[in-house]
Structures are given as C-alpha cells and as structure tokens.
Amino acid sequence: MITLDGVSKRYVTKNGTVDALVDVSLDVDQGDVYGIIGFSGAGKSTLLRMVNQLETPDAGTVNVNGQDLTAMSPRELRRQRRDIGMVFQQFNLLETKTVYRNVAMPLLIQGASKAEIDRRVDEVLKIVELEDKRNASIRQLSGGQKQRVGIARALTTQPSILLCDEATSALDPKTTESILALLKKVNREMGVTILLITHQMHVIQRICTKVAVMEAGRIVERGNVLDVFTRPREPITQDFVRTVVNDQIPEPLLEMVQAETRPQELLRLRFVGDTVRQPLLASLSRIEGLEVNILGATVEELQESVLCLFLVQLIGGPEPVRRAEQLLDDAGILRERIAA
Ligand SMILES: Nc1ncnc2c1ncn2[C@@H]1O[C@H](COP(=O)(O)OP(=O)(O)OP(=O)(O)O)[C@@H](O)[C@H]1O
What we know:
Blueprint: E1 2-13, E2 16-28, E3 33-38, H1 44-51, E4 59-64, E5 67-68, H2 74-81, E6 84-88, H3 99-110, H4 114-127, H5 143-155, E7 161-165, H6 173-190, E8 193-198, H7 201-207, E9 210-215, E10 218-224, H8 225-230, H9 235-242, H10 251-259, E11 264-272, H11 280-285, E12 291-302, E13 305-315, H12 318-330, E14 334-337
Parallel strand pairs: 3-8, 3-9, 6-7, 7-8
Antiparallel strand pairs: 1-2, 1-4, 4-5, 9-10, 11-13, 11-14, 12-13
Helix pairs in contact: 3-4, 3-5, 4-5, 5-6
The structure holds adenosine-5'-triphosphate.
Protein name: ATP-binding cassette domain-containing protein
GO molecular function, one term: ATP binding
Keywords: Amino-acid transport, ATP-binding, Cell membrane, Membrane, Nucleotide-binding, Translocase, Transport
C-alpha cells in the first residue's frame, strides 16, 4: 500500500549537511498500524512527510496504492493527497474558528456542496465522539478534544491512509490512552491504514502491528511488534523495549545475588502467548538439587497476547541447571543468561 524504495534525503544548510534519510526502504500493508520509533533527529518526520510528498526524495521512489508519487504532476498529487489524512502533534487547528469549520476545511477546499459537508462533518464528529462540540470554538476545547478534532478533520475526505506525527506527545497519559483507542477504532472499523511516528515505545505497544526503529536516518530494525518486543536485536531497540518491559534485576536484589556463594545461573526468560499457561516455574522447582528464586517479573499486554519476562536465579550444580535449561528449551521459552 505504501512502499518506499531506497529513499534518501540530504538537507544542506549553512551549518553543514544532514543526511536525514539514507537509503530507506519500507513496506506498509493495507490494514497495518505501522509505527516508526526513534530519538529526536533520527529522520522520522522526514520519512512520514515523504508519504504525502511534503518532502521530496533526492533518490528513491515513494509508491502509494501502486502509484509513484515522485513522478506525479502537482494536480495528480493534490488528488492523491485526498486519500492520505494527516494528524499533527500540535493539532494545527484554526483556534478562533468552530469545530465545524475546522473539520469542514478539507471539503471546503475541494469545493464540496454544503449538504455534503454537513453530512460528512456530522459523520466524523460522531466517530470521534464530539457531536456536542460542533459549534464550539477550538479555544474552548481541551488538548484531547483538539486532537479529536484533528483526527476528524483528517477523516473528512475518507482517506485510506492516516499519517500521525507524534499525535499524542502533547497529551497527558489518560488522554493519550483515549486518543490511541480512537486511532485503533479508526483502523479496525474504518479499515484505515495508519503510519505513525513516535518516540514512545508505549504508543507502539498499545496500537501498532508493526514497528521500524530509526537511527541516524536509517531503519536499523523492523518487524511485527510481538517479535520485536520479544527478541530486540539492536541496542537501541533493546533500550526502547526496556522502557516498557523492564529486564534488569532490581538493585536491592542484585546485592543478594552477588553475595551468593553457591553455584548459580541467572536467566532472563521470555514467554509469549500460550506458553504463559504452562506451569513452568513449578516444574523447575521440582528438579532435584535446584533452588529457583524469582528476581523480577513483568507481564505486558501486546497485540492481544501477553509477553511475560521473568528474571530467575537458579542455584545448584551443573546437572540440575542443565536439566532446568533443557526443560525451558523444550517448552519453547526464550532464555538468555545474564551476568550478576
Ligand atoms: N528543513 C530542514 N532543513 C534542514 N535540516 C532539516 C530539515 N528538516 C529536518 N532536518 C534535519 O534532518 C534530521 C532529521 O530530522 P527529522 O525531523 O526528520 O527527525 P525526527 O526523528 O522526526 O526528529 P524529532 O522527533 O525531533 O521531530 C535532523 O538532523 C534535522 O535537524
């Protein structure tokens, strides 16, 4: 549905050159909620703006619905952009105008009839649950309500793609949850494909199906959210995952572990989905000559499944520890040894 192929973008300023995108390729399929995560300056905004050609590439192509946007005339591009809505971090609304006027804007620009505009505005305000604010001024709204107006405006032209530029970064945690739930609803019930950029792994966890991690203009890791959360490869991805799934031994317990004089093995275990139901820890503790201590545990909901992370200390000789590791391997549990 969206395909970037070998896209590069270099900005030249009086302070020097910046390679904002370096040979970036990306495939977003219909129905995806695709999240791009990275630190400030990684190139996320530049990538997002390629998809509606607010930025043009120095090299590579940008295809949307099978059409190469980089080869389009300005007129064709304007038509294509109606199929791509955009939601902004700072809402980008006309503060002195009404909700109706803001939401109607894309249709007014297109020259739609008053009857059609009225019908469509009412439809989208219902979706974002702001019917009662139709005639309110934007200034009278909370941040969360403003973002709902921003989403409604992006949906008026019935786009098949929604681009979200840090849509929840200016909102408090509770409002963030409600906006993320709304985006998920837009994806599920209206079939809108979403490409979003964020620096919060929590956003990826809550609504994305796929994720790409960006660093210095490159995509360094990508995949299904469940896979990336379970087996993050790159250090930057591990850092992002750690902000949601803590995988470190808590400081007070570390001292106890380091003071242990008996032979021990420290393991980080990851269980996904059905594996969670197995009574593994009970089985481990039945191994003769083995003492099992839990040093940490996290359970996170992820894509309608659960990811559990356990930090365990196995105290015992080589044979009981080997049996324990065998048991974990047979159960398909991901295990990783950690240093004390
Ligand atoms: N119009 C521009 N002119 C010059 N440099 C730019 C321009 N736009 C972006 N850059 C630079 O390109 C790099 C990537 O910027 P970009 O905004 O895409 O990153 P980002 O990951 O979205 O960052 P943030 O999260 O801070 O928005 C940065 O070094 C930025 O300073």
